[in-house]
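Archive transcription. Copying these from loose printouts into the bound notebook so they stop getting lost. Printout 1 of 2:
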Amino acid sequence: MADSMAEYLQQDMECEGLLECIHGLKELDRKCYQVVIDGDEPMTIDEIAERIDRERSTAYRSIQRLLQAGFIQKSQVNYEQGGYYHVYRPTDPGEVSRDMRRMVNEWYAEMSRLIREFEDKYAETERPTPTA
């Protein structure tokens, strides 16, 4: 990841880069998200772990980050004889994009406020222009 915004803006970005940029998600999270997106039906942690060729606990941590970011949703499936398990499915892309747009707009508003604060603070200490 870039160290500064200027460096970040100079990189070639793809839409999946938003997962990292806005939500701080990792490459493994992107893989898990793609697996869930590609699934025809909601998937269990075990199915996701198998498809990404990782341990169940590793897949679970990644899925938890995706849940927290709002990219996927969790549902409970009950067994008739008692007990349950969870399955995961992607959140509607329109809902995800609206949430990302809201976050970017909030970030932009906060950056604008900080820039105005910077201008106000340093405008008071303007240096005199040299005379020839």
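Printout 2 of 2:
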Amino acid sequence: MTTSSHNKAAATPPPTSRFAVTLTGGIGSGKTTVANMFGELGAALVDTDAIAHRLSAPGGLAIAAISATFGTEFINQEGAMDRAKMRAHVFSDSTARKKLEAILHPLIRSETAREASEAQGDYVMLVVPLLVESADWKKRAGRVLVVDCSVETQIARVMLRNQLSRTEVEAIIAVQASRAQRLAAADDVIENDADAAALKPQIARLHAEYARLAKTNDVQHL
């Protein structure tokens, strides 16, 4: 596999004065694997999914608003958001999804900015699964790195990982940005239809480029 780069006009930098890359990709594309490999090389990772989990965990900053908006039936016995129940609800009701986003997204943005400003590493890598779907994140994104794979690969991985049916996985993919939309937003692309061995040379090359840019604090595109 090879890594391709896409030249684009400069976008608004993310909420940090340090050089930052925003990593995105569809469900099952391998974002976590790729991000962790960058982290092993020296990138400081800020994962918006992990932040969202903390916000909706017991005692999380979003729990009170989620309970007030959706009802206590969406909070489990431990005091966390019932993720399975909420997932089923928002995938069948776009209004409910927007309400949940209105609660979580501002909190995620503020926590992401805080973590990015405190991060230690060669540069900051923001992991934002729904980058393309969110106009706000698109405005904040500096250099956009997309982890790409075929839709069939996505389906197979998620079915195996999450024990979901093909129909359930296809429903999740249907509400996300399309593969073409993500690629259109990309400055750099990592192809991930194979295994981790195929990722290593792609990641090594891009890490070297990002580390070089970070030394000059160049937030513009290559």
